[in-house]
Amino acid sequence: MNRKDFIKTSTVLAASTFFLNAKGSTFLDQSIRVGLIGVNGMGWADLNALLKNDGLVCTALCDVDENILKKRAEELQKRNIHVETFVDYKKMLNSPMVDAVIIATPDHWHCLQMIDAVNAGKHVYVEKPIGNSILECQLMVQAAKKNKAIVQVGQWQRSQQHFQDAIDFVHSGKLGKIRLVKAWSYQGWKSAIPIVPDEPVPAGVHYTEWLGPAQKRPFNSNRFHFNFRWFWDYAGGLMTDWGVHMLDYALLGMKVSDPKSIMASGGKFAFPDDAGQTPDTMTAVYEFEGFNIQWEHAKGIDLGPYNRNHGVAFIGNNGTLVL
Predict the structure, then answer these.
(1) Is residue 91 over pLDDT 60?
(2) Which H, E and C letters describe 144-167, residue by residue?
(3) Domains of the chain from N-terminus onward
(4) pTM of the complete model
């Protein structure tokens, strides 16, 4: 099967990260050519998982931090993988040498970059959360459908067999009537973010491009790279970082989507004076017909319900299944 026929007919799968499998296609003109937007952290992990599969080749890297971009390109070159590098993701999307892209940028960029990618005729793996608002998600779905693009979101649990088996067991009815589902994330490793002053933009960083659609503000190292998660301009904290995984499985197990009502309470209880903005402690209750789903998260605490730092529990009359 050649590259174009494969892309037209295949599905995008995930096994903790994105991959397309076209076994037997080993030459560049027959391989699926992938570009990575956002080469640090999860993006790099996603790409390395992809490269374990036959019929795939990385042809392009894009990042607004030229320091990391150069480092990743050199690491690939040592593995005899030669890529074109870009700072501007739109220029990469215009490349005829890219069939599909991985989007692993901070959350506030997901919507625009995914829509631009499918409009450019590319297929997409976009890291979770898909977007920062319901409207963003709706626009992304519309764009994918309009362009008949293959899009996979980084809900990697859905591709793990034990998660699939667990959901099948929940659906079997053996737990009896389920009245409560608990989902949680307790991250004891996450400590306070010290307050630091604004500073000049580091050499090689295209900060205006990093901010993109977010509010314009001076450069601060607290908000850059990994820690963007804890600031409202870019993300939603543990709720959208971990809740997107656990709540996805709670909803899937109960075969529901929209709740009747939502109640939430929380705040910065663990680190009230640190630089972060999103709640470090929170509980949310989603009301459905005949049952509730409860979410809770906390930074600075190692273990949550059932002595696990994250998980989902389906609590039924006949028993409880814990994932």
Answers:
(1) yes
(2) HHHHCCCEEECCHHHHCHHHHHHH
(3) 3-154 (3.40.50.720), 161-192+230-322 (3.30.360.10)
(4) 0.90
